[in-house]
Write a structure and sequence with these properties.
It holds the Pfam family AAA_2. The protein has 413 residues and is an alpha/beta fold. Helices cover 42% and strands 15% of the residues. Helix 6 crosses helix 8, helix 14 packs across helix 15 and helix 14 crosses helix 16.
Length: 413
């Protein structure tokens, strides 16, 4: 049995990290080891020196409460005879004091252990200089115009559009009275069925002119994920803002896309639990971005039957909408081809001061066999290839006055 589990307050986390860093101790989350218990090489990391392991993941709801005791006993046994200091967020004190009663002799406050008092974190600075276009700022008439445009910009998924319309109306009402901070959508479905297109369509219809705030969680599966997302703690070399703060500051629209969310971990799940409840994102630098009125879209390629297994129950209950996207019909694919060709022609005419007519759309609808493509990304690639061929033929027929190459086409798209 281990001697003690030390608890820190949420506001003391950065000071706790600084304390152990100053002592030369490595700090790591228990989730690093839980990802693959059979990979014993991970446990050899703790052969030399003193390690600090944060076990908060056990209390965060990611694991079934009936399994916490057995998981704890199995994992901690692998650390026997190693110099390990165990710490935990004190909001899980009562829960883990009972569930880990056979793993630790004492459960104490970290300040009592080291006889110190942490300096209070600086008062967070609310970043308000950036103006984001949000559906909560629209009048009723503006909202209806916005949603009409959104319906036309997203092809297929009619049930989702109907559901989203009702949810968005409710969100606008309750946001104004302070009852609903952030609208969250979790979209499931295989790659290429249009999940990320929802975010892009919202961005476009909200008048976005800068960049969509998109974070891909494909690279957010290790123990350093939270630092990558919200920045490193003060006092660390390379301390800076995390990716999500940079993305939000660089967009002009109140929409955030979190792609491949299932590849994150319990620490990030807990971060978004706080975000969805408070409507604020707090960085490691104690800076806040107020995202009240934002829409956050989480996407995942996991099968819908895996959803309750991969995502914690606390977080699942926070999502305002959970939907499963399926492949588009051939009719919807043809509508998509029509939309993309019209968009490309418009950009081409503006860039080259040409006057291609939009009536050539029917040519592309006949040329592109949409029934052979299941993935919308493959259809888009085919559209680009056929457009290049079409322009080459047009230019050739005009006595070779200039041929558009695929490299030039990239400028347009």
């Amino acid at each position: 049995m281990n001697k003690q589990l030390l608890f820190y307050g949420q506001a003391e986390f950065e000071s706790t990290k600084t304390l152990f860093h100053s002592l030369g101790y490595e700090m790591i989350s228990l989730s690093f080891f839980l990802d693959d218990v059979k990979d014993l090489s991970k446990f050899t990391l703790c052969q030399h020196g003193v390690y600090v392991i944060d076990v908060s993941v056990l209390g965060g709801g990611y694991y079934n409460i009936n399994a916490i005791q057995s998981i704890g006993e199995s994992i901690f046994r692998l650390f026997q005879n190693k110099e390990i200091i165990y710490i935990c967020d004190d909001k899980y004190f009562d829960k883990l004091r009972y569930e880990l009663r056979y793993c630790f002799e004492n459960f104490i406050d970290i300040k009592d252990k080291y006889n110190i008092s942490f300096e209070a974190l600086p008062t967070p600075v609310i970043i308000t200089d950036k103006q984001h276009s949000k559906i909560t700022d629209f009048t009723t008439e503006e909202f209806e115009v916005f949603f009409k445009s959104f319906r036309e910009s997203l092809y297929g998924h009619e049930k989702f559009k109907d559901d989203f319309y009702e949810i968005a109306k409710s969100f606008r009402l309750f946001n104004k009275i302070g009852e609903h901070k952030v609208l969250s959508l979790f979209l499931l479905g295989e790659s290429g069925v249009g999940k990320t297109e929802v975010a892009r369509a919202l961005y476009k219809c909200l008048g976005g002119k800068e960049n969509l705030a998109k974070v891909n969680f494909g690279n957010y599966s290790n123990e350093f994920s939270l630092s990558s997302l919200i920045g490193s703690a003060r006092g660390y070399i390379g301390s800076e803002d995390g990716e999500i703060f940079i993305r939000v500051r660089n967009t002009d629209v109140g929409v955030i896309l979190i792609d491949e969310f299932e590849k994150s971990n319990a620490t990030l799940f807990n971060f978004f639990l706080d975000v969805l409840e408070s409507g604020k994102m707090v960085s490691s630098q104690a800076l806040e971005i107020d995202i009240n009125g934002f829409i956050i879209i989480f996407t995942s390629n996991i099968p819908k039957e895996d959803f309750p297994v991969r995502i914690s129950p606390e977080l699942r209950s926070r999502f305002d909408y959970k939907g499963h996207f399926t492949r588009l019909s051939n009719q919807d694919k043809r509508k998509y081809v029509e939309y993309r060709i019209n968009s490309i022609i418009k950009k081409y005419n503006e860039h080259y001061n040409e006057s291609l007519e939009t009536d050539v759309v029917n040519y592309f609808i006949r040329t592109i066999p949409v029934d052979k493509y299941e993935n919308m990304r493959d259809i888009n690639k085919k559209i680009k290839m056929e457009f290049v061929k079409y322009i080459e033929n047009v230019k050739s027929s005009q006595q070779n006055k200039g041929i558009l190459t695929p490299n030039v086409l990239n400028i347009l798209l």
